[in-house]
């Protein structure tokens, strides 16, 4: 294994799954593999308990938007966890990629979860609002203009809180992911795109240097970044 320096972000690296001409069977197996990968590395159970569950309404429904939801496994997991905790969480997952949208829509339906092929800017233009807005593994995907747009859109769309979760770039993360996924996920883009994602992702200081006021960066564990926005605090100011 060749360990790149990772001192700086590699913004030129491209994920294979973003290529519109990539092998559709490999892509479908990649979407299917997001669920175990996210369960192992993304830390949403903890983020749900700390940053989302405190906002769920005891009476009536709470709404949540997952931007760039891919195969939709995080959207479905959040709806299930909330239901198990006795809350009515209505989740909307959006993704502009027709292949991701198609794949997500064809899974066994989970109560309270729906998927749309849309961009966050379209929801802003339509005047939509959600109590909570999240994304997973989206920040590193975007160029600077798209990232600024995402933060502006998500702050507008959220009534209560925004949680953007992503990988934190580091050599240990790269080495562990490379070794752990070596024999796993054959016939998918998981290993290659995962390593590309780590090369494209931020360190905490880099992300802090790029965010507008009203946002904070937290580092739950060694390998993750959370970019948080408290819409309620902003409304109180
Ligand atoms: C690495 S995948 C992550 C999917 C899913 N969130 C997960 O964690 O399994 C990134 C997703 O973001 C979507 N995406 C790319 N650019 C986007 C944008 N500007 N707005 C919303 N989603 C975008 C892609 O289509 C892709 O499905």
UniProtKB/TrEMBL annotation:
<keyword id="KW-0808">Transferase</keyword>
<protein>
    <submittedName>
        <fullName>Methyltransferase</fullName>
    </submittedName>
</protein>
<dbReference type="GO" id="GO:0032259">
    <property type="term" value="P:methylation"/>
</dbReference>
<dbReference type="InterPro" id="IPR041698">
    <property type="entry name" value="Methyltransf_25"/>
</dbReference>
<keyword id="KW-0949">S-adenosyl-L-methionine</keyword>
<dbReference type="GO" id="GO:0008168">
    <property type="term" value="F:methyltransferase activity"/>
</dbReference>
<keyword id="KW-0489">Methyltransferase</keyword>
<feature type="domain" description="Methyltransferase">
    <location>
        <begin position="65"/>
        <end position="159"/>
    </location>
</feature>
<dbReference type="InterPro" id="IPR029063">
    <property type="entry name" value="SAM-dependent_MTases_sf"/>
</dbReference>
<dbReference type="Pfam" id="PF13649">
    <property type="entry name" value="Methyltransf_25"/>
</dbReference>
